[in-house]
Amino acid sequence: MKKIYLYAVALSSVFAGCSSDTLVEDNITTNPSIAYKAKTQSSLAELVTEISTGCKGITFTDAENLIASVEYEAFKNRDFRELAVQGYSTPTPGDWDYISDTAKGNIINGLSYSPVVKSYLYAMIVDNQGFSESFFENSSLTGYEKQLLETCRLLNDNGDDDYGNGHIRPLAFAYGYQTSEANAVIMAVISSVNP
Questions:
Q1: Does 96 lie in the same domain as 23?
Q2: CA 25, CA 189: separation in Å to the nearest integer?
């Protein structure tokens, strides 16, 4: 009888803990302003760095296993899970092969962004020119485009992502960003794990 009572107490505390976490997560997903504030406190560049740190020990034999391993690590992160709820699809090995094997200028030209955004990306990634935050003052850019450029700038300025590949992390981020913010994070992390 004592064992049953102890199991019941332990089980009820587990349920109580899960219920309160679910309540918090439900409030965040139903209140977009809370989710936005959470995202701004932890920027996308910081999220890429955090998940990349957790992926440092990943060993892989092919792109499919690499992607699966990075996704596994990413979904451990609450901020990433919140982004994924807003939209996420698993990248294909072909996506990674395209980023790693295609000329950077060709990738940028094929992105679905405005010519202004492409010119900023081209200047940073191909011409190796840093740019200031002056793009925030460009009225032709949307908030979405400004966030893309700021995150790419931060990833580029971080400098620890290249492993000799030259600006692959911001390029991978920009490629994934066409699909969603979560895809952008995953692609940037993959680029940091796969030197």
A1: no
A2: 25
* pTM score of the predicted model: 0.75
Residues 62, 20 share a domain: no
Residue 146 burial (CB < 10 Å; 0-12/13-18/19+)?
middle
Residue range of the domain that includes 153: 43-193
Burial class (CB in 10 A: 0-12, 13-18, 19+), 2: exposed
Q: How far, CA to CA in Å, does 99 sit from each of 112, 144, 148, 188?
A: 15, 22, 17, 10
Cα separation of 120 and 70, whole Å?
Answer: 28
Measure Cα distances from 144 to 1, 52, 153 in Å.
60, 23, 14
Q: How many CB atoms lie within 10 A of CB 124?
A: 23
Alpha-carbon gap, residue 47 to 154, rounded angstroms: 12
| Tens-digit pLDDT profile for residues 141-150 | 898 999 999 8
